[in-house]
Each structure stands twice: as C-alpha cells, then as structure tokens.
Amino acid sequence: MKLVYSDQYDLNLGNHVFPSIKYRLIKEKVLRDRIFSPEDFEEPPPASDEDVALVHHREYIRKLQAGKLSYLEIMRLEIPYSPELVRAVWLSAGGSILAGRLALQDGLCVNVGGGFHHAYPDHGEGFCVLNDIAIGIRKLQKDKAIERAMTVDCDVHQGNGTAAIFAGDHSVFTLSIHQENNYPYPKPPSTLDINLRDGVEDAEYLHELENGLDSALREFQPDLIVYVAGADPYQNDQLGGLKLSLEGLERRDRLVFEKARTKNIPVSVSLAGGYARRVEDTVQIHTSTMRIAKEFAS
Ligand SMILES: [Zn+2]
Questions:
Q1: What's the gap in Å between 15 CA and the centre of ligand 1?
Q2: Which residues pair with 109 in a beta bridge?
Q3: Model pLDDT for residues 46-101, shown as the tens digit of each residue
Q4: DSSP letter (8 states) at residue 183
C-alpha cells in the first residue's frame, strides 16, 4: 500500500491550534516504527486549476492565487493566508486525486494530509481552503475511473462543505458522523448525518457508526469510499466534545475498513482534523489508522 505525502503539506503555522507539523511527525513516526519504508511514499503533483474548478468557483480560485481574499474571507479560514498555504492546499488536492487512483489500483491508499471537508465552492472556512475530498471524487468521475463514491466522514465536526457540494447529486453518498453541538453551524444535510450528543463514548459511537455504514451500503453501492479519518473525536481533543479512547478510534478504523472489504470497495483515506492537547496523541491516532489500513491492504 502506498502513502501520498509532501513535505510541503506543513504550513509552518507555529503555535496555531491546527498542528500542521503533524504531517511531518507522522511520516517520521511510521518510518521510525518501521510500519512503512521511504519507498512507500509517493509525492503528489499539485492539482491543476482545471481539477480544482471541478468543485470551486473560478473567482475564488483567482482570489486565492492572486492573494486577493478579503479580510473577512481570511478570518473565516481561521488560518493565516500565505503563498505557502496556497501551494499546500493545491498539493493536498493533488494528493487526494492520487490517493483515489492508487486506492482503485491497490484497494487502499492513505493521503497523509487532506480531509478539508469545511471548504465550499466559493469560500473556505474552519482551516479548510480547498475541498480535496470533493476534488478527488469529481476528478475520478471525470476520468471515468469511478461512477459513484461514498464519503465516510468520521471527523468530530460535520462535513458541511462536502455535504453542500454533493447535495442533490445521486452519484455521491455523503455520510457524516459527528458531534451535533459543535462547529459548523448550520449543518447542510449530508445524505446521512449521524448527530451525536456531547460526551459519547466508544461503545455508543461504534454502534451508531456500524448502523450507519450498514444502512448506507444497503442502499448505495459506491466504486470508492473516501474515508475522512479525523483524529478529533478523541477524548483529549481541544476542539471536540466526544469521548473516544485511542482503542475506540482504532476500532472505528477497523470497522470502516471491514465494511468496505466485505463489499470489495476500495478505500482512499484522508486525515482531516486532530487537535489533541498533546500533538503526540494526534500523531498516534493518525499513524494507527495507517497501520490498520496496511493490515487490510495485505
Ligand atoms: Zn474536525
């Protein structure tokens, strides 16, 4: 199984609550722990502007590239604007396209980045500039590599941008399991939203996720699942209010991969959020997802 990664995913945000240093730390850890070796990593090309325009408005793309976002638009992103940011998000979108292709080839692939599910066609918000998930799906559809896709969004925050982008599109089923009483507000409806109370723990979460996956896969047969494996349902997350343990998060990953394997559906993974008090915990959660993915790939 290949991993898609670029050193330029790191936005060098310093002490920002979004620890973009995690991408590099994850790479170092999976190499140190000998879960993966250097030749397992594939460097993505940046998405082309044509690929990005499959999802985003031309005017928004132009403003991003020319540094013409307004003060309010930058406030809404909640991360500082820079040319490096633009470079990183174009690469992350290219990474999700490549991870989708490799998943179709190998059964599973992880983009060690991406998962920017809060980005809408005409604006970004909540640390998300371009919706790499939607760009990847639209590109694979355009290339006729897939017809139908399902997003399984397990980030603690609802996948509002992804839900809005695919609203009314019967070729994409969006499933989001999240804390109801948390950003974003409002939450445009996904095909299936699983709204959880504050403080939900492992057993209830896994029960709800399994029911949701079973019912989604009964009514919809995708050619690809895009698993948005946010680390922020973790009990010690600063921006999440669910109470999953490290073990519960591993069981979550296994559940998604098992359901996909039962139906022979390839899975492309992106990392999305993770704001644990200790960045080591966020890195641990993401590297576990990658280790478990590798088990299922072999
Ligand atoms: Zn999140």
A1: 18
A2: 268
A3: 999 999 999 999 999 999 999 999 999 999 999 999 999 999 999 999 999 999 99
A4: S
3 state SS of 19: coil
Relative to beta strand 3-4, strand 41-42 is parallel
Q: What SS3 state is found at 20?
A: coil
Query: What distance in angstroms lies between residue 155's CA and the mean position of ligand 1's atoms?
Result: 5
Q: What is the Å distance from ligand 1's center to 39 Cα?
A: 30
pLDDT in tens, 85-94: 999 999 999 9
Cα 236 to ligand 1 centroid, rounded to whole Å = 13
Residue that has been written with the tokens 């299922």 in this structure: 296
Q: How far is the CA of 69 from the centre of ligand 1 (A)?
A: 23
How far, CA to CA in Å, does 104 sit from each of 39, 60, 169, 294?
Answer: 19, 30, 22, 15
Long-range contacts of 258-263 (CB under 8 A, 24+ apart): 258/296, 259/210, 259/213, 259/214, 259/217, 260/225, 260/227, 261/296, 263/217, 263/221
Report DSSP state, residue 39.
G
